[in-house]
Amino acid sequence: MAETPQSITHRRVLKIAVPIVISNATVPILGAVDTGVVGQLGLAAPIGAVGIGAIIIASLYWFFGFLRMGTTGLTSQALGAERMGEVAAILTRVILIGLLGGAAIMLLQVPLFWGAFQVSPASPEVETLARGYMQIRVWSAPAAIAIFGVTGWLIAQERTRGVLVLQIWMNGLNILLDLWFVLGLGWGVNGVAFATFLAEWSGLALALWLCRDAFANPAWRDWVRVFDRARLRHMLLINVDILIRSLMLMAVFVSFLFLGSGFGDVTLAANQVLLQFVEITAYALDGFAFAAEALVGQAVGAASVARLRRSILLASVWAVVGTVLLSLAFAVWGGTIVDVMAKAPEVRAEARIYLPYMLLVPLLGVASWMLDGVFIGATRTKDMRNMAILSTAAYVLAAWLLVPDYGNHGLWIAFLLSFVARAMTLAARYPALERATEAGAR
Fold first, then answer.
1. 37-74 confidence digits (pLDDT tens)
2. Helix (H) or strand (E) holding 214
3. CB–CB of 428/391 below 8 Å?
4. What one-character DSSP code corresponds to residue 66?
5. Whole-model pTM?
């Protein structure tokens, strides 16, 4: 394939990124509606049941989150190398993996749910309602996990408008069914679960329709290619690396909350409120990281260092623009955001003490998120795994040194340093990525 770095334009980057940013903005809306409709029942238990049930289900699905990232890298590289048969075969593989993964959760639901409630015990009433919710939700696990893979496949081909359509359809249908089943039919917590169950299966049907062009290529059912041992092993290794990397990052977040709990309920609540700023930042910058994944993967597949560099440059330019806007927004409206999320005066006051750290979240986190996108697109997942381990170790060391003397301030500094450590260690591995891309051209 001829090198055409000029075809990587600002418009192309935004065409990939903006639909993802809009799509991500719909996610918290659904959670708010789920909570709001059961809140109309006038009881505390249904709200708690939907909350804890959704968290447990989401945590089980989270273990298959690697399917989205790994699929984007592999598909974009196959596309860059103009191996369209492999692009179609990857779609079949990830759908099958998603269906099998969901089936495994369905089969193991009894011990999985038991273990979840051992870790997060609830009152008998809440646990009973939550179990009923999860026993309905779990039957759409194959659809929900398969959608991870299809989403990654669409992103790799820069078809993020399709991802947006899929997200709006699923969340929109879910909200309408929430209102009908809970408020109209009086199904309570189970109504919320049935709404999500139907939305996820209909979402998979829509996702397959969005991918209908792949099914015009006979390679999608070339079972020798689909089940090729070498390709399956390569996919497995990539996904295991991503899973380990994600577990390391999750360990940082979980330990942050546990350590914060040692400073009292008010500080714990304030930290939880402030973590929403981190989530907002990640959702907002995801679009540019996804653009980097798709464009970098295609550049690596085409063995074009020129395209690789331009893809990273343009995606990063817009990520920096987003970073500056987010920091300014947090500086101007940070206090208002805290007030919306917390009603207790003592929690509001405590959160404001640490609010300046939120201005640094986009600035210190952007490089790590963008480099994640670069390395996912290049499928340099061993580097991602190893650097995540190193950055987690840096966080642990910083927390050990700073928390005893500086308390929650030290904890926030250690948390932010984990982003910096991940960015610095991945940046140190970037030259090897370029050398491997250049070697692929020979």
1. 777 766 667 777 777 788 788 888 888 888 999 999 99
2. none
3. no
4. H
5. 0.89
